[in-house]
């Protein structure tokens, strides 16, 4: 993984509405539902208090409070949303849950609420999020569900988006505390970094700085395995810079890129890259009908300015040495062309032109 050409900070991205075609797709797969609590209702809180972390430091979140007469019906509605998210609305298995806390974060585009819900029998907590709906994020969540090894539960309703919590160690914390941990094999860590880098690039998920993904450590019969999971999808198919979709180029990820250079030969990096490309194509084949429906909507949806589409298609055409990218008019077409390019070239014995420079 290369470390040159690092990416400067980005301007705030606008929010794009969920268009009728995307809404129809979501309804078909039971992602769009009538929900008992709206985002606007949650915004009608009366008091806030700073939320502190375990070390007593202020976080970006504030705990919010509502009128007492509002709390009972609000909590009941939030429990029903959680039931829809987790068990398709079967509330009979979730009557023992209670809402412990509601937090709000004004930072970022989606201005999320984080709901802490607890099992009364064993005090085991879980979380889910209620945010402003943004088409970019919805496409990102669905592409993650279809093309990555991770399954995701989320719901939309009007201008609201509900997401499950994605557990794991935040990437910046992993770099600081775990990257050089004796219990983790460097080759396994570097391998997953290469695979994550490739997943983001193929499906055009941008801005994967270390604080926008988590690392999951899974015990295995020999040592531990890890998986990297994106947790912020606001920058799905928006930016015009090709390197914005390669996590290796962010200064926040510099230590990870150097780690890969230290522990992997170029030939091994290319092997892991090709493995992930093959897996993505296999996933796309399994979900061919559903993915085709999503991309059919996405290619017609203007989720980025035309000048960014032109910049990115030229960058990808040069990167892959393929003029087919120059015919793409939307970000959705570029995602589809990335998958088509892989399908056309997966049998070749070498990596696509230009990748050698990116990886080493």
Give an overview of the whole structure:
This protein is an alpha+beta fold and 360 residues long. It has two domains: 20-132, no CATH class; 169-359, no CATH class. The protein is built from twelve helices and ten strands. The protein has helices at 20-28, 39-42, 68-87, 135-147, 171-177, 186-203, 254-263, 266-286, 288-298, 306-320, 331-345, 355-359, and strands at 47-52, 58-65, 97-104, 113-119, 125-132, 154-157, 160-164, 169-170, 213-219, 224-230. A seven-stranded antiparallel beta sheet has the order 1-2-3-4-5-7-6, with helices on one face. The protein starts with 19 loop residues before the first helix and ends with a helix. The model is unreliable at 350-360 (pLDDT under 50).
How would you sum up this structure in a few lines?
With 360 residues, the protein is an alpha+beta fold. The protein has helices spanning 20-28, 39-42, 68-87, 135-147, 171-177, 186-203, 254-263, 266-286, 288-298, 306-320, 331-345, 355-359; strands at residues 47-52, 58-65, 97-104, 113-119, 125-132, 154-157, 160-164, 169-170, 213-219, 224-230.
List the helices and strands and how they pair.
Elements: H1 20-28, H2 39-42, E1 47-52, E2 58-65, H3 68-87, E3 97-104, E4 113-119, E5 125-132, H4 135-147, E6 154-157, E7 160-164, E8 169-170, H5 171-177, H6 186-203, E9 213-219, E10 224-230, H7 254-263, H8 266-286, H9 288-298, H10 306-320, H11 331-345, H12 355-359
Antiparallel strand pairs: 1-2, 2-3, 3-4, 4-5, 5-7, 6-7, 8-9, 9-10
């Amino acid at each position: 993984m290369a470390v040159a050409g690092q990416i400067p900070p980005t301007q705030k991205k606008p929010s794009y509405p969920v268009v009728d075609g995307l809404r129809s797709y979501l309804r078909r797969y039971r992602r769009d539902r009538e929900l008992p609590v709206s985002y606007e209702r949650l915004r009608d809180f009366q008091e806030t208090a700073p939320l502190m972390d375990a070390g007593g430091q202020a976080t970006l979140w504030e705990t919010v409070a509502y009128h007492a007469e509002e709390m009972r019906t609000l909590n009941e509605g939030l429990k029903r949303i959680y039931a829809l998210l987790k068990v398709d609305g079967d509330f009979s298995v979730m009557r023992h849950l209670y809402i412990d806390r509601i937090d709000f974060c004004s930072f970022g585009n989606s201005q999320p609420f984080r709901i802490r819900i607890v099992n009364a029998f064993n005090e085991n907590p879980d979380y889910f999020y209620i945010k402003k709906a943004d088409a970019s994020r919805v496409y990102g969540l669905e592409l993650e569900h279809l093309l990555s090894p991770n399954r995701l539960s989320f719901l939309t309703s009007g201008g609201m988006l509900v997401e499950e919590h994605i557990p794991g160690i935040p990437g910046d914390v992993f770099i600081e505390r775990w990257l050089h941990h004796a219990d983790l094999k460097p080759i396994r860590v570097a391998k997953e970094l290469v695979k994550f880098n490739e997943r983001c690039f193929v499906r055009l998920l941008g801005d994967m700085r270390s604080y926008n993904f988590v690392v999951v450590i899974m015990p295995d019969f020999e040592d531990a395995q890890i998986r990297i999971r994106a947790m912020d999808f606001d920058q799905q198919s928006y930016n015009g810079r090709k390197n914005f979709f390669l996590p290796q180029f962010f200064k926040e990820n510099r230590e990870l890129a150097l780690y890969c250079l230290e522990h992997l030969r170029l030939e091994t990096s290319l092997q892991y890259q090709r493995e992930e490309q093959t897996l993505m194509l296999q996933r796309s084949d399994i979900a061919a009908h559903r993915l085709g429906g999503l991309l059919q909507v996405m290619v017609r949806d203007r989720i980025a300015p035309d000048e960014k589409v032109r910049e990115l298609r030229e960058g990808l055409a040069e990167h892959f040495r393929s003029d087919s990218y120059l015919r793409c008019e939307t970000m959705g077409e570029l995602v589809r062309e990335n998958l088509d390019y892989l399908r056309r070239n997966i049998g070749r014995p070498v990596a696509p032109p230009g990748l050698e420079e990116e990886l080493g």
